[in-house]
Amino acid sequence: MADNLSFYEWVRIERERLLINAFPDFIENSYGETYVIECDGNVEEVRKLVKEVLFVFNNLYIKHKWIDDIEQWKAILPHQFTKNFARELTIEEVEKERDWFYSLAYKQKLEEAKKAAYEPWRLSDWAETMHPENRVWFWWGDTILGERTKDNYFVVAIKLLDDYYSFNPIKIFFKNCGAKNISNISQYDLY
């Protein structure tokens, strides 16, 4: 882990920064990433949905609760966000897919794993990346990028708890909030 603060202390800090609409700055000697989020003329809608979804998770963390049921997730998360995930598989479909995968030769498994990286995510898979034991990033701040492009772009700073993380859950998060494209940039490119 990058910092000595506990997960729940980072939850508290994230909540405070969400509430004050913090600027995307960084803590010195800390892990972080900066992204340019491209929207389709709806930057305020995307920013609002991003924060709404993050508050749902933040509230669960504060209450030390977690949800394992996909229908409960669909009930508490905004439909605008959940509608963009792939259909959940039934237990039978999961078992059939697992049995099929285990029947493959090693090289075939590698090829299928590569293909799976480009398949649409399911809400249950994405929510699992936000579980307190799995989540390694926090929203740190955002700002609209320039007056000319104000309807199309905003910059987001993400606080990382570790220097190793997967970009896919972050990308899926912003895409399902309505972003058109997400580009990782150096924080030094902004200043």
Task: Describe this protein's structure.
This protein has 191 residues and is of the alpha+beta class. Helices cover 45% and strands 15% of the residues. Strands 2-3-1-4 form a four-stranded antiparallel sheet. It is globular. This is FAD synthetase.
* Largest beta-sheet details: 4 strands, antiparallel
Q: Give the strand content.
A: 5-15%
Question: Which runs of at least 5 residues are low in confidence (pLDDT < 50)?
Answer: none
Helical amount = 40-55%
Count up the helices. Answer: 8
Secondary-structure class: alpha+beta
Query: How many discrete structural domains?
Result: 2
The radius of gyration computed from the alpha-carbon positions, rounded to a whole number of angstroms, is 18 Å
Shape: globular
Task: Give a summary of the structure in a few sentences.
This protein has 191 residues and is of the alpha+beta class.
Throw out a few tags for this protein.
191 residues; alpha+beta; 2 domains
